[in-house]
Description:
The protein is α/β, with parallel strands linked by helices. 21% of the residues lie in helices and 26% in strands. It is built from ten helices and 19 strands.
Amino acid sequence: MYNPSLSGSAGNSAANSRLYIYEVIGLRNPQSTDAANSKIRRSGSSFITVPYQRMNQEMRRIASLGGKILSIRPFEAKSESTSVESTEPMSIQSTEQGVETSESAPTEVAAAPAAKKHADVPVNIYRPNAPFVGKCVSNDGLLADGGIGMVQHVKFDISAGDLRYFEGQSIGIIPPGKDAKGKNNKIRLYSIASTRHGDDVDDKTVSLCVRKLEYKDEKTGTEVEGVCSTFICGLKPGDEIQITGPTGKEMLLPDDPEANVIMMATGTGIAPFRAYLWRMFKDNERHANPDYSFKGLAWLVFGVATTPNILYKDELEEIQEKYPDNFKLTYAVSREQKNAEGGKMYIQDRIAENADELWSLIQQEKTHVYICGLKGMETGIDAALTNAAIKSDVKWSEYRSQLKRAGRWHVETY
């Protein structure tokens, strides 16, 4: 799945006396700042406390030390369990992926120990100025006969490098060539569709689920093809590709094997959920992960246009048949199914049909919700869950905010 942006913003409405914690990676030793070849940490995070009024200055210092800000959250003295280092003030730097924000959760919703859990997640092992050059292993069509468009499952060999990743992360692809202004084509980010061990469970590959972008220019009426998606979909085994990353911590799975995982996807938004489900249920993956044996409930609500556009259909239904107590699969096929009003069946209609059951699950402390795909789906999902929550005298918008701060509501839409 292509992510045009993983950016966020930090709200800075607090009083000047407030402190914030920056999670930063890639810091050089301050004494070696002037050395062009000073070593940068490749993984691991530093946690820095920053006064609100000095955030801009602190950003510049982080940048000068080669660092990238992964997240910003208010400092809560009573609840902080992660060690933080106090430094001189800096300023907020917008990273390539943007800045993620999180806060301590209110008492109504239990918070996940996100900073501690995510400390070992690899980020930006390969950067745009020094990408990894991998090779295409395979490029297979995912649509059945009669499917709309072109969607490919593309696997890359990464055995020659040090690219490591977790389920829910993304990688960047640098397409060859120049843009209309004569500059190198820009990086596109795609959600990883394979587990950390790769499709062959040998730690040597990474896979993507890519739809070829095709649309008509409104001004000229000409057909336009996406630069990067066309490049990827046209790759042949042995072709080279420039890869950056990995990036992102928003869509990571909880470590708890008894967690409930609700997934809502449209189209190629299935990519990270394929990685989750393969990790949870595939025999080779379960053998490779003896410390992670999924025992919770995974529920995928998947919206597509037609039945031939259901990506990974056979494998999803095989998992459902083999693990009926742990995996629930719900399709919304817009051009073939009707909703309660007789209109097209979209993902929000399926959420509305199952809203009470979903609401009951969401209130459990071990439940995480993931949304990935077209941005328009969020409004309908919120409307359906608003109607369910109100039966419990709960305002859904406020409760959702608590879930987000607690690290249990994960959204990646485009």
